[in-house]
Prior knowledge:
alpha+beta
Amino acid sequence: MAEKPYDRLEGMIWYDGKLVPWGEATLHVLSHGLHYASSVFEGERAYGGEIFKCTEHSERLKRSAELLDFDIPYSVAEIDAAKRLVLEKNGQTDAYVRPVSWRGSEMMGVSAQNNKIHVAIATWQWPSYFDPVQRLKGIRLDLADYRRPDPKTAPARAKAAGLYMICTISKHIAERKGYADAMMLDWQGRVAECTGANIFFIRDGKIHTPIADCFLDGITRRTVIELAKKRGIDVIERRIMPDELTQFSECFITGSAAEVTAVSEIAQWKFTPAATTEQLMADYTAEVQPKGKKKAA
């Protein structure tokens, strides 16, 4: 959490094509994005002044908007340049990067074909999403009551604001119980993801992870799968039922915010972070370093 509320931080925000002072980057209370969740966003990290997988994130932002039936009025290259500009103007090298796009206030109702599409990009200092010590020892996860919906009922492949409503509720409940986060099942009761991160399990030297069809196929998820395969580790994407969790020895989660974080417990299931998880944590840390600064793994 920031020392100040996020609307009171200092710096510059890129807003509809120009840089504005942080406190002036506002929107009206009758913006469609606020009332009807017609908003998409990205979560990215800059390491050593370079935004990791910058273009992939911008491309996904554009695709997410298309899934919500609106077009972002900037190209991928323009969004990439804007993100780098904000990072530079705010004097940051290691930071969180948040592009967001939403429908404005020209129409107020479910229908909003004529609403202006806004885009903003902010950056701020944000350390590890979870306590660094716990990331190594393994965080504890609750089992969420809410489930990821059938992909026929929601635009599951979009990083859309509305899809996070049940994530916020589930994380709040988990934190009140003393957990760091919660694992969600899908609409058929199969293992899906955490509230803001993808999940992986290890058994007999092989990695198992749910098929990303009703939740976001994370960019960090894909990166870690590639890193594991480079190590010669088999990665099996399949349906995983909760009663299988007793069979796995290790568990970890991935995301731009979470990076690679070990898990020691999910409700009644226990895991022991070990060599494979630690290796992938180290590999990911090396992977995100700017070109020319990467150390040999």
